[in-house]
Amino acid sequence: MAKVIMVQGTMSNVGKSLLAAGLCRIFKQDGYRVAPFKSQNMALNSFITSEGLEMGRAQVMQAEAAGIEPMVCMNPILLKPTNHTGSQVIVNGEVLGNMAARDYFAYKKELIPEIKKAFRKLEKRADIIVIEGAGSPAEINLKQNDIVNMGLAKLVDAPVLLVGDIDRGGVFAQLLGTLMLLEEQERARVKGLIINKFRGDKTILDPGIRMLEEKGKIPVTGVIPYMELALEDEDSLTERFDRRERGRIDIAVIRYPRISNFTDFNVFEQLPEVTVRYVASAGELGYPDLIFLPGSKNTMGDLKWMRQNGLEAAVRQRAERIPVFGICGGYQMLGKRLSDPFGEEEGGELRGMELLDSETVLQREKKRCRIQGRMNGLSGALEGLSGLPYEGYEIHMGSTRGAAEGAVEADRTGMVYGSYIHGLFDRGETAGRLVSLLAQRKGICLEKDAAEDYAAFKERQYDLLADTMRKYLDMEDIYGMLREAGTD
Predict the structure, then answer these.
(1) Active-site residue list
(2) Is the distance from CB of 149 to CB of 137 less than 8 angstroms?
(3) Pairing of the two strands 86-91 and 94-100
(4) pTM of the predicted model as reported, rounded to 2 decimal places
(5) Where is pLDDT greater, at 1 or 27?
């Protein structure tokens, strides 16, 4: 039987995903077989496993930190919001259907057997399982039939580390208030408190820590400093969306309301002299060196949003002299027409941006597959990418007609491109080559040999995360929690 430990938070975006990844890395470095687990994830960033199954990218990131292949049993339930009150429900990597929030709340207890089954499968492969909770365990309106926080901790008999975010203020109230709202048996599961994202002199914090331990009756297991890491974060609350600086190479990503899989562009953030901006209005767009239209969970709705706020017109105008690249939903938007005969999104038909010759029909079945090959036959502004290898995955409801053969479709002007492949730029020199092409078009020289394989870059980031956590966490105490887990 694997030992388990669970990371819960006082609220969303306190750093649960990264801390869980860091623990995975530490345990891996210490010679254990370790795996991540999150029973239910709500995210628009998803991934396709080697079996063609869909799971949340946070657990993919944690699996990478653990040095193992992502498996859908690490995230048996994935909710992908389609609007403010409903989500597409994915169970064991396959679409169950769309549900309103109230309907899912009433239904979710039926999924407990699937959660148990996935966890037991993972137990056979790991010495230690690091579990991530969701949101806060003290959401009293959601505690009934909880399957992701204390309900899950009870189900698998896991000790809990409770994390608070000091960067946004009120960390003592966060932690003590959460403990106060937990039931007695739930509080007994909390074995350590973690203060995350600390900046400054810890000695100033020490009196507060002593008072926190006195009032909460639970030790503070660590005070983790604010870490500047280039790793994936919670998609709905990412700080990436707030960046406004512009580098010598300026890449703009359209940030529509249902943006998904924007992890496609993380690779560019590690390149020197390159900035990635997420823009939500024509005024923010400016005149970048490249415009990306990312994936969308509601392609028709997001295209209407672009049309209404002027971004569509701005992108069309700039496409005459600035390369525009659409991926997945963004690729579909660039075509002549979108049709939704089965009502998968909004039903009916919608004129596309008419920058590519293709047309898309939304289907009932979702295409999910991993794919690899070479980008051949490109022309125009990005002709220099021809011949480069790629490895990624497709995940979409639409079938696109009239598209050119190959990984990337280009228009006749050589300025507009589209692809269904997520992760197209992650492998080897691809991102660096693309940036070099943009620099050549701009007539500037960038630092040579600055590009690094993205996988190697992330490995260094995971090691940095683990090294930092080792320094500021009481790992002896955490190993003690693991030894005691399941011994009662």
Answers:
(1) 328, 422
(2) yes
(3) antiparallel
(4) 0.90
(5) 27
